[in-house]
Design brief:
- The chain is an alpha/beta fold.
- It contains eight helices and eleven strands.
- It has a single domain, classed as Rossmann fold (3-Layer(aba) Sandwich).
- Helices cover 31% and strands 26% of the residues.
- It has an eight-stranded mixed β-sheet, with helices on both faces. A three-stranded mixed β-sheet has the order 4-6-5.
- The chain is globular and about 55 Å long.
Length: 242
């Protein structure tokens, strides 16, 4: 009986989108594009890894202009190989944060999707987080002003293993130019001690509504609840209020 209740709890959470974010890229892109309402967009892929999200974005919106940020040397090489003949995709070898400078990327192996600017404690999963490499960090506001000429941005995707809030704080005035932001929240936020409440108040103060991505579509969250503090991988869409 105890196991049945645990299963029911897990299924109910999954139906709400909590824990649905582990392998939902196709749906993440689809639901995010619904809010942009444009055939071709300017998109920012923060935490590009090996390019799966950007590839899916190009599949669903082929004429989009994409700027990918990825600090891992192994993955930068893979991204450059994947997009070398696509001039509408720019690969930038940086991590985004709230301050510019040097940093360290920790992971269990070179190029890992678990790579984070925090040395995570994953002993309970038998994962050794001893790999590291020196990387460079920049603030997105500087890139937006100097490279993008302060243009309007249709879609931002952020998946940087617990440092999403730091990257958002580095947007500065650029946040006012963004229409849609899709971001991940999960177990890595335990290590960085950031909570869904932090995101709720950040976006509410910046004029965004929050939606949770579920298997059945996006679900608008009309208020904050402690029930939202679920550390199983979950994806959200922040949409600027009109």
């Amino acid at each position: 009986m105890k196991n049945i209740f645990k299963l029911l709890e897990k299924l109910a959470a999954y139906a709400q989108g909590k824990g649905y974010g582990a392998s939902s890229i196709k749906n993440e892109v689809k639901q995010s594009l619904c809010f942009t309402k444009k055939d071709s967009i300017l998109a920012i892929d923060i935490g590009g890894n090996i390019g799966n999200y950007s590839q899916e974005l190009l599949r669903q919106s082929p004429n989009s202009e994409i700027h990918i940020f990825e600090p891992s040397k192994v993955n930068i090489q893979k991204l450059n190989q994947s997009f070398h003949n696509q001039p509408n995709v720019k690969v930038q070898p940086f991590a985004l944060s709230d301050e510019a400078g040097g940093g360290v990327l920790y992971s269990d192996r070179p190029g890992s999707g678990l790579g984070s600017l925090t040395k995570r404690n994953l002993v309970h999963f038998n994962i050794d987080f001893e790999e590291s490499e020196n990387i460079n960090k920049i603030r997105f506001e500087d890139y937006w002003r100097n490279v993008l000429d302060s243009r309007e941005i249709d879609l931002v995707k952020i998946d940087i293993e617990g440092h999403e809030l730091s990257a958002l704080k580095g947007f500065g005035a650029a946040i006012e130019a963004v229409k849609v932001i899709q971001f991940e929240f999960g177990g890595c936020n335990i290590d960085t001690r950031t909570y869904f409440q932090d995101f709720w108040y950040f976006f509410n103060g910046k004029g965004f509504d929050l939606h949770r991505i579920t298997p059945f579509g996006s679900s608008l969250l009309d208020k904050y609840s402690e029930m939202d503090e679920c550390f199983r991988t979950t994806n959200y869409i922040a949409v600027r209020r009109s």
